[in-house]
Amino acid sequence: MTIGGTDVATPTPTPESASTPEDPKTVRENARAEAKAKAAALADILAPVRGRIILAQLVQILASAATIVPYIGIVELGRTLLAPGTLDTGRVWLVVWLVVGGLAARALFSFLALAITHFADLDLQARLRIRITDKLGRLPLGWFSRTSSGAVRKSVQNDVADLHYLVAHAQVEAAAAVLSPIFALVYCFVLDWRLGLLAIATVPLYALTYSWMARDLTAEMEKMDRGVARISATIVEFINGVAVVKTFGQTGKAHRRFIEAADEFNDDFAGYMGPMLRVQAITTVLISAPLILLVNLGVGYWLVDNGWVSPIELVGSTLIAMVLPSALLTVSTAVHTRQQASAAALRIADLLAEPELTIPENPKVPNGHDVVIEDVHFTYPPRLGVPSGVKALDGVSVTLREGTVTALVGPSGSGKSTLATLLPRFGDPDSGSVRIGGVDVREIATSELYRHVGFVLQDVQLLTMSVRDNIRLGRPEASDEEVYHAALAAQIHDRILDLPDGYDTIVGDAAHFSGGEAQRVSIARALLADTPILVLDEATAFADPESEAEIQKAIGALMVGRTVLVIAHRLGSITHADNIVVLDRGRVVEQGRHEELLAKGGLYSMMWAGYEAGTTRQDEKIARGASGDDSMIESNGVAR
After folding, report:
1. Looking at residue 287, what DSSP letter applies?
2. Residue 150 has what pLDDT?
3. What is the spatial distance between Cα 236 and Cα 575, in angstroms, rounded to a whole number?
4. What region, left, alpha or beta, does residue 334 occupy, with left being phi > 0 and alpha being psi -120 to 50 degrees?
5. Which positions ≥6 away from 282 have C-beta within 8 Å?
6. 315 within 8 A of 74, measured Cβ to Cβ
7. How far apart, in whole angstroms, are the C-alpha atoms of residue 506 and residue 471?
8. Under 8 Å CB-to-CB from 425, ≥6 apart: which residues?
């Protein structure tokens, strides 16, 4: 298959891997390892602002301590107002001002703590985005081929943003949620130890109920893991064999296995979650405001009736008890936020750990434009659909003489695109060398390399800037006349003039090109860059008929006088190449001119026969008036 324009050998899952459930113990160990990795990544990401976060939490201690002042004020004000004799107005105003001071102190210190964390968050986000952007500039181009733009955007924007609440809010709010009730409970015990116990009377019941809920959690999670594994196995089995299943009319039977597995999992899940939800409803009641109020006032009345506490002390402790449920919810939210931030931190850490292209300390300049690829081995890095260790190239050696055209052909997944993209350093080989003018590409400065090597790939990327600037991306200093000449040679000049602002039209705004038109803009860019070596992924393989002829003309102008390495999708387009290299499973199995390879009767000969048969069928369809294209032929020319 092809990922981002790169040939990828598609691994076929073995029956065992598709159907064998993963060991629950292994699942738990992997989960623990991942949790540790996330925690380590988060600690590393937060290191630059950890000192400021701790400072903010220390400031929050003062705010939490001030939180108890209004409760003290309520009790003391009640005692003063209910005291027999003449009202002590001086004491009343003293208590009032102390309460106001406490509220002001709480607001001030809370604001200061949040200000510290918000500025820390702004600094952290700026640091991370600079680090990520700097990292992206040092990654090999091949990384971008196998990584979607959405994944890059998620790292730069979403993952960094996911850290905001943790840094700017959660740490301070969690500290407040823990410390404020502690200070309040201390005051309850100061009033009377019985009031302190009464304020937390329902909390032990809440804790015991949750412990009971979790008693069979491990066993039930293992059962659910096995259920998920069975469902996954039936899905993989069905997808892998869908063609055979449909051919023999067994679709219903294949579906039935999945439905049975899903039903069994649903029964197990419902059997476990049903009682748990009922118990959870009970636990929610145990920390609900009405129950807390009922318990405190009911038992408190008995304490007051026995003369152990005063009514106003009971009112103060009851108000404090009402704060506890909101504190538990805040802590729960902070825990969830930390988990989300940990996952984001791990993704950012993985990106920052991606291997970079080596920068030569003493860069060299190529002497000539011959290309020698010698004993190159390359292993795919792990990515979606391709496990690590899959070998793409295995001892490949090819020589491209200056001014000649070399074509790469072979079945899908044979390594054509991988080999071609080593030349412009989309990646570096595990071993072996790729030399230009006698110099290894790893010893050439990047700016110098791209003055020698240009490339036109099927996956055309036009930036959100004027068409003029898109064309002279490789030569920003090029004059307008040079841009026009390149566009004329690429057969795209007239189309650009039809745009609202001509060459100054912004791509993606008022300039919307078809695939073939965008390809010609890309060719104009390569023509203007005027590199002596060109890597060309045959641009007409999937072009519409209207664009194909014009693209062919543009490619013809582009190839003149250059050392060209072309990835061939249609064998008919490379019959005049100076050298045709046939790849199969990452190895060179044949090479030579078209006539020589046909005479050998090897893989190329079989591919050519398949190509001609496909072309014949296509011509017959066209003759019958059917709409025909090359979709019946695979990209390597072999008939489906």
Report:
1. T
2. 61
3. 42
4. alpha
5. 209
6. yes
7. 12
8. 140, 141, 357, 441, 442, 446, 449
| Host H or E run for residue 159 | none
128's tokens: 């991370």
Check residues 209 and 315 and name the one with the higher pLDDT: 315
**Distance (Å, rounded) from C-alpha 351 to C-alpha 153?**
12
Distance CA 617, CA 611 (A): 10
**Residue 609 C-alpha from the chain's centroid:** 43
Classify residue 478 by its DSSP letter.
Answer: -
Largest CA distance in the chain: 122
Q: Residue 133 and residue 156: Cα distance in Å, rounded?
A: 8
Q: Are 9 and 390 in contact (CB under 8 A)?
A: yes
Instruction: Tokens for 377, please give them.
Output: 């081995």
Do residues 282 and 291 touch, judged by C-beta distance below 8 A? no
CA distances from 54 to 59, 282, 395 (A): 9, 37, 55
Report which of residues 276 and 469 the model is more confident about.
469
pLDDT tier for residue 116 given thresholds of 50, 70 and 90: very high
CA angle 530, 533, 534 (to 5 degrees): 85
How do residues 449-493 score in pLDDT, each as one tens digit?
A: 888 998 887 777 788 899 999 999 888 899 999 999 999 888 899
Note the pLDDT of residue 617. 63
Per-residue pLDDT averaged across 570-597, rounded? 90
**pLDDT at res. 621:** 58
Q: Which of the given ranges, 521-525, 535-539, 611-615, has the highest pLDDT on average?
A: 521-525
